Structure prediction request, 234 residues.
Amino acid sequence: MNTRYEDREDAGRRLAAALPQFRERPDTLVLGLARGGVPVAAALAAALYLPFGVMLVRKLGIPGHEETAYGALALAPAGADESDAGHPAAEGRVVRIINRPLLAQMLEHGVRQEWLNQVEDRERAELLRRARSYPGLKLDLKGKTVLLADDGLATGATMRAAVEAVRGSGASTVVVAVPVASVEAQASLERVSDFVLCLHLPGKFRAVGAFYHHFEQLRDEDVAGLLQQGLGAN
Prediction:
């Protein structure tokens, strides 16, 4: 059977069981990629007695084939001295990664640059909208170990952007922790992170949701609620 996890919380607990070396480790925190990685991160952090927060990311999808990413955006977490309550996310803190060989191929096959610009403008606006909506975004990552969690990796684009973002914010060690990933995504993340833990690496990868019994779409309210709980616990 393809399905291996009951839900995202189950996946987070299973990741925690495979990462006992981080239990109650000082200067370590868990960040979940929004939206789907946040419940995974919350369960992972609770089991390891670590603080957790959110990593804001957006996939840049190919026009007409939006599920396939040609790049991604991530918001680098700002420390308390880098932002204020009125402007929690400075646009200069957005990290952008592009699959340049894929981009060149798309342009050769008739995808127009203006269409890609529209995709990026839309996703950047959504990223910054979420930054204004979600609590607990001010995080000091300098010198810390960061566990980046998601519910799964298809292309790995958003996770690569997240890795770049936390490194740019001063994290000393970056660990990627996911329940399931494509072979290609894991290989790409191994090149940019310090360690990748993937519990299930199927030979055929179709969609992340295929590996869960329950894989509901999350709302902003769901993410904000989990983050508020985390702030209370921390």
User: Anything to note?
Assistant: Residues 113-133 form the longest helix (21 residues).
